[in-house]
Amino acid sequence: MTKENTHWSRVGEAGTVMGMRVLLLVYKVFGRVGFKALLFPVISYFYFFNKDARQASGEYLTRIKPYLETQQRLKLGSFNHFMSFGDVLMDKFLVWMGKISKDDVVFETPNTIDEVDHGKRGGIIIVSHLGNIEVCNALAH
Length: 141
What we know:
The protein has 141 residues and is an all-alpha fold. It contains six helices and no strands.
């Protein structure tokens, strides 16, 4: 498979451990506002210099637009898609540090979650890039 037709799921990570440590340090010193301020130029760099990722984002957004409400479609764009990836990164840091609890999470179907939580049977949680599996995993423990 050539680089031009490599599926996005087979593309390796572009960041570095050092980069994530710097972001984590910025969060610890300056909080969420500082994290987002530093994240903006980082995400901008990847957005402008990673044509393949931009193209994959655009293709994905084109496929989902017909299923969204008008208000959601107006906010949709590849750069916002990239920034939401950065927001998810922030949530991952927070959940790994134990700073997100069940009370911090908004469930789209709270009654279903409560039934599974209080029932004697298990359940399956299905997520996508619109959800954060690390948050689900941390809350399960």
